[in-house]
Design goal:
The protein is an alpha/beta fold. Helices cover 36% and strands 18% of the residues. A three-stranded mixed beta sheet has the order 1-2-3. A three-stranded mixed beta sheet has the order 4-5-6.
Length: 157
């Protein structure tokens, strides 16, 4: 990662890491304390296992078969009913609900690899790793803004 790279400009190094054994409730409290849509989940040795965020929380709340249906008209119109039925998910280990599609990028990678990851994997954050350990995350919206500003600066020159 070069000093002038977009990734270096927008890398968030001080993000909380979730532990595999954390409960969904603990993970949500941590996540809500940030402005990020997801957080990395690590094992006991600090190695990246996956991510937990907005999409994973919705998956924890609703049965897996909902994602395969064309519609969910039979689901109660008021989500409070669904929340009430799935209160137990708050006590489940977050590891049960993480996305394990490893979309992390090594610290040695360039901006193009991060851009490709956002483009092809449709993720909201990309963990940046060094030897499997998370050193920070890049949020898609931060990457977009920095890249767009650079294009506009060059186009206006």
């Amino acid at each position: 990662m070069s000093p002038e790279s977009v990734v270096n400009e927008v890398l968030r190094r001080d993000v909380p890491l979730l532990r595999a054994g954390d409960t969904v409730e603990q993970a949500l409290r941590t996540l809500l304390g940030t402005d990020l849509p997801a957080l990395p989940v690590v094992d006991a040795d600090g190695r990246l296992l996956g991510v937990f965020g907005e999409r994973e929380f919705l998956g924890a709340l609703f049965p897996g078969y909902l994602g395969e249906l064309k519609g969910a008209a039979f689901v109660p119109a008021v989500l409070d009913d669904a929340l009430e039925r799935r209160l137990t998910c708050a006590r489940e280990p977050v590891e049960r609900h993480i996305t394990t599609d490893h979309v992390d990028v090594p610290v040695s990678a360039g901006d193009a690899q991060v851009a490709e990851t956002f483009l092809h994997h449709r993720v909201l954050i990309v963990p940046i790793v060094d030897g499997g350990r998370v050193i920070g995350v890049v949020r898609r919206s931060d990457f977009f803004r920095a890249l767009a500003r650079r294009l506009l600066e060059r186009a206006g020159a």
